Protein 1
Amino acid sequence: MMRIGHGFDVHAFGPGDHVILGGEKIAHSSGLIAHSDGDVVLHALCDALLGAAGLGDIGAHFPDTDATYADVDSRVLLRRVVALLDAHQWQVVNADITIIAQRPKIAPHTDAMRGHIASDIGVTHLAVNVKATTTESLGYIGREEGIACHAVALLIARAGTEV
Ligand SMILES: [Zn+2]
């Protein structure tokens, strides 16, 4: 038994000198506004994983009204999501991620992101793909108002999974 999930997230730019994407700190002329560290990549991935398992979304598990999650490292949230999947007898097969950003340049950082994510979700480097595109200067991404991310993930059931 396999299940697929999709996640999407957006964060707006605000004051700051770096963004954190896929667990990687990237110097930039703005930061991303968020209750947590604003890691739009890991938030989209968490939602894809939770979606595949039928376990709701990141907002339900880690509400932004809860002070516990103020400025939280999103890798901690990702590892908690994977632990939750594990408790439900789900194993991650792979994840494919598309970051949509006009700036900063993402390509030099995708390999590092893959490493962080592969280690957090318990798969090989090749089972995590991270790619990026711009919107050719169109729309809110093109106007550099923020960064968006899509993620899809596949899970496989271990014996005893409630499906
Ligand atoms: Zn988010």
Note: The pocket of zinc ion is lined by residues 9, 11, 34, 40, 43 (CB under 6 Å).
Protein 2
Amino acid sequence: MLTKSLHRGVLLTLTLLVFLLLAACGPKSSGSIVEGKVNVITTFYPIYEFASEIGGEDVHAINLLPVGVEPHDWTPRSQDIINTSKAQLFLYNGAGLEGWVPNFLKSLDADSEAKAVEVSKGVDYIMTDEEDGHDHGGEGEEGEAEGHTDTLHTDPHTWVSPKSALIMAENIKESLQSVDPAHKDGYEERYNKLAERLKALDSKFATELAKLPNHEIVVSHQAFAYLARDYGLTQHAIMGLSADAEPRSQDLLKLADLVKKEGIRYIFFEELVSDKLAKTLAAEAGVSTMVLNPVEGLTEAQEKNGDNYFTLMEKNLQNLILALQ
Ligand SMILES: [Zn+2]
């Protein structure tokens, strides 16, 4: 009897120890549920920023994607399932960005009341036949597709255009109002402020880019189709929708020819993935590289610096102006 209870005691201590160790050693927690607020789980940075802005004091937002990580290779951890099960709202981009969402929603607690909302709904989607070799979407059915596929994919990068970001912000506002009607007016008021800023950004992009003589951009990852469509640019991508799929060498040579022929002066790359291919192409064509940020997440430096969707998009505009004049 004595040994049995002693045994149980040791087991309990061990369990507790393992639990504490796990809690201490796990990757940086993405935050925990706060009682008395509307808990909103977001999948990646722009949605987190908009939900925090519109939510104000009524909302506690938790972003699943850690700082410095781009959404392509990310999948949720068990703590994310626990948090989301207790939250009132789960906001994801959709349009194929988060291929893990259907399974994730199935794994939530049976009594979870979290309402899942596809934030990009209502945006006029761009379809592309680009291969999508990474986990940006495709619900995993394409996997590591070899060669060309004839399937059309939805381009998920809706937020990169202020015009579609505005639609996304409105969806976020409506979802907050539906789970928390008591604070409807506050959401409306803060949404209006955010919408004003997005509209100002939109008209700045439209007027500034229209003044420029050049409209062809060469980018590393095909993340700028919505921006290109809405502001009259033509996007040439080295890597397709993915940020990590390798381009074929004949495609690189073709791009180098285009760069020379069109007098393109800069190849754009992004900070969360390697700039190797952009540098290779730039060297091949004898031009320079510059950052064009798809705002899929912040780097640690950007977070410390207080950067956000608006500062990064503003920087994008300044770099586009430099590159296209
Ligand atoms: Zn992307």
Note: The chain has a mean pLDDT of 86.
